[in-house]
Amino acid sequence: MEDKGFIKYLGVLVAVGLAAFGITKLLQRPRKPRSFREDPIGALKDHSEIVASKAQAAGEDAIERLQATLEEIRDRLPDVNSKQFRRTRKDLNKRVADLSSQAQDLVKELRANGMFNR
Questions:
Q1: What's the pLDDT at 8?
Q2: The whole model's pTM is what?
Q3: Which of 12, 19, 46, 47 is deepest in the core (most CB within 10 A)?
Q4: How is the chain split into domains, by residue range?
Q5: CB–CB of 47/33 below 8 Å?
Q6: DSSP secondary-structure letter at 79?
Q7: Distance (Å, whole) CA 9 – CA 84
Q8: Helix H or strand E segment including 9
Q9: What is the pLDDT of residue 64?
Q10: What's the Cα-to-Cα distance from 94 to each of 91, 98, 106, rounded to whole Å?
Q11: Rounded to 5 degrees, what are φ and ψ at 57?
């Protein structure tokens, strides 16, 4: 006897579930924008919402592409630890100092030869 009552309520539950599903699908359906003749302010609002949603989607796509590109670039970069970085900086500083001293020597030599004398 109890099984028949359960089956009766099961049918009602399925019907309510289908009705709820249908209502949610109808609410999620994209609406046509209002016409300018009938409702100019509402039409402007609708069109601005459409443009804003398209701009947001385009922005999100651009961010995703940028993130993918950054990840690809990071994967290509060699792993450099701080010790290698310091060593490279020290070597470059030595080269700059050597080049600077060579340039100063050249300037002194040119001045001694009289090219820049007043």
A1: 67
A2: 0.39
A3: 46
A4: 34-77, 80-118
A5: yes
A6: P
A7: 74
A8: helix 2-28
A9: 93
A10: 5, 6, 18
A11: -65, -40
The model's pLDDT over 12-23, given as tens digits with 9 standing for 90+, comes to 888 888 888 888
Q: Which carries the bigger pLDDT value, residue 118 or residue 66?
A: 66
How far apart (Å, rounded) are the C-alpha atoms in residues 12 and 14?
A: 5
Residue type, 103: A
Backbone φ and ψ for 23, nearest 5 degrees, come out as -65, -45
Query: pLDDT for 108-117, tens place per residue?
Result: 887 777 655 5
* pLDDT of 1 above 60: no
CA distance 48 to 44: 6
CA distance 62 to 37: 36
Q: Quote the CA–CA distance of 81 and 92 in Å, as a whole number.
A: 17
Tokens 């993918």 belong to 68
Maximum C-alpha span of the chain: 122
Task: State pLDDT tens for residues 44-80.
Answer: 888 888 888 899 999 999 999 999 999 888 888 777 6
